[in-house]
Design a protein that fits this description.
single chain, about 120 residues, alpha/beta, 5-stranded mixed beta sheet, 5 strands, elongated
């Protein structure tokens, strides 16, 4: 039986979508910060972090030494969190892979059941 696709057939994947959210970082503790223009902004609660479109685990652990070297800016609270929200049109979107049909000279495989050995 010949393969359905030739060995050299490649179905290219779509280009990955760039995440437009601000980078999220943490030191060695529990505090999470968003970094904008080389300035860290502490996110005061998990609910605000989630409202901004993040999930715990999205942040990069950079350690306390590197975190201390980033200038400290405004704290992100319930009163100002919306100004740190990524605009809807900039948020990453799911992209489905392009379906490329097989070449015309390739026949689809047919499944047949083998005869049972009795």
């Amino acid at each position: 039986m010949e393969p359905i696709f030739p060995k050299d057939y490649v179905n290219p994947a779509p280009e990955p979508v760039k995440d437009k959210r601000l980078p999220a970082v943490r030191g060695d503790g529990d505090a999470v910060y968003l970094v904008e223009n080389e300035t860290k902004h502490w996110v005061v609660s998990a609910s605000i972090y989630e409202k901004l479109g993040y999930r715990f685990g999205d942040e990069k652990n950079i350690g306390n030494t590197e975190l201390a070297n980033i200038k400290t800016g405004e704290v992100i609270t319930n009163k100002n969190w919306e100004k740190y929200k990524t605009k809807e049109e900039e948020q990453p979107i799911a992209v489905e892979a392009e379906v490329i049909p097989p070449p015309d000279d390739v026949q689809p495989a047919t499944a047949t059941m083998p005869e049972p050995n009795l």
